[in-house]
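Office hours follow-up: a student asked to see two folded examples consecutively, so here they are.
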Amino acid sequence: MIPSFSFEVFLSFLYFKIAYPNGFSGITLITPPQSCKAIEDALSRNPHLTSLPLPKVDVLAPDSLSQNTGTAEILRLPEVQAVINGHFIVLPCDLISELAGESLLSTWMVYAAGIIGSSAAPGGLGVWFPTKGENAVKGEETDFLMTASLPDATVNPSPDSLRPHLSQVVYSTSTDTLNDITETKKSFPVRHGLLRKHGRIRMLTTTRDAHIYFFPYWVLDFINDNPKFDTIGEDIVGWWAKATWQDGLVPKLGLDRILSPTPTQPSNDADNNSNNHKDFDLSSLSTTH
């Protein structure tokens, strides 16, 4: 079975802070070449940036990167793949959140990363936020998300746990794509395979992708095997989510080979021994926040 991709919805964005725990090998800021010098100057001179805790931020400016390069295509660049040697986190450049980064990291490690003794392939974690409510911004863009409930936890989560906010992503796309589908088909078709897999699903039309992703290392193989993937949210997450329930997608996307006992391994075997498996469940490898 295919590992699932999860998401969590939380209320408002103010400030995102993450301590650098053991296991972080580095932080890389990826930018087009024309912005590289200005960013490096700011990192070396701005007192707000020079006082940041270790590890030091490395700036990477691939020659072929431009402002129009798709987010999935960025992860496919050889220069970017060369610096990723294990599970990784993708953050946007304009992130402001009140949710502590350590909370997301620990949630991913416990429920999706497969580093607590599970033999399943590690899954992913993403963040979406509501665009309606007290702090809503008029005209905020939205994304279309379909989710299913995760199995009940075997142990009651702690009061400050994010577990009650987690769901499994079963469909992810942009609102523009959703509008194109409904305009062409005069409705939004829901496949029987999805309803067979999940008897109860939620359709969210007022959430926004925060572009925060916790990815297992095998996702690089997934990206490389599917060169048509252009964006993370709509292509990588979207196709991964559908592969957890749509017949025929696992071999079509190469996931049967990628999640075999010998996928591309990160350099740190201790952190990735959970990849040694024979049976895989895509639905168990995805969660949402």
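And the second, which I mentioned at the end of office hours:
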Amino acid sequence: MGGKNAEYYDPIANTWSLLPGCPVAPILTSDRQGIYRQDNHAWLFARQNGSVFHAGPSKQMNWFSTSDTGSTTPAGTRGNDVDAMNGNAVLYDAVAGKILTVGGAVDYDGSPTSSNVHIITLSAPNTPPTVTPIANMHYARAFHNSVVLPNGQVLVLGGLNYARVFSDDTSILYPELFSPETNSFTVMAPMSVPRNYHSVAILLPDATVFAGGGGLCGVGCTANHYDAQIFRPPYLFNSDQSVATRPKILSANPTNPVALGATMTVTTDSPVQKFSLVRFGTATHSVNTDQRRVPLTSSASGGGGNTYKVQIPNEPGIAVPGWWMLFAMNAQGTPSVAKTVNVQ
């Protein structure tokens, strides 16, 4: 155990290299189980110039550089927050460098949880970010999952009020929806199945959220859940709860691949106001730092009809190369089904 210092993977050479300037020590929490838990589940975000921002779960934050043999620059603490093991961090606006952190616990197992919420605003690499505490969630949680939506809202699902592995005691069944416009949370319709330790949640291309699993604690364990549910966010409904009419992306060119800095031509079946990219997520152990949202600059093409010019950022630390979902949103905020885009 321990000694999990940084390594760098080169996809062209298909090789790994140690980065002695990026030791694991700066990210450790003060977990009472020692190194077995102190280095778990880091919140890491790729940024400009080969830098990586470490937002937690330790209260100490850091910048890492992957250049040469690596380097580490302390980035201050996450406000007055405590260690937040098995909490969440979501890059809900990669252009503005906005990270939402929610919940967690000082110790991995057998610990009261937190309802703390902070917004971390990144600037240049190696520069301390701005950390803004906002109103807490309605429920304290650990082992929950958080999913960024196409409009920048963040859905927080599941978790326990008291952190305990392989347990459904003190389960929180009510999701909460974060609004970046008001910096507040609204309680949503409850789940029927707890989603705790080893559960996952990800955004689907139809702009709904998959929440499933939990447990994996052997035959007969009551915390095992071999099922899933789909959450349909409010943006898919009208104010009278009828199903909203969704815009459709008829064509998007180019898509596979689209170069960093390129302009896409996107045609929809009806007028839209906004576009965003959301990176395909990979969730495990309450961590999904693959997911990130990039709001896109767009304008009418000038050729008439519902055709738009959509600009992909030129910075790989914002639009990280890989597979993304492209969403179009109408004036009501209702998103389309996504088109898959490969940014390279």
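Two things to take away from it. The CA atoms of residues 48 and 343 lie 16 Å apart. The chain has one helix and 26 strands.
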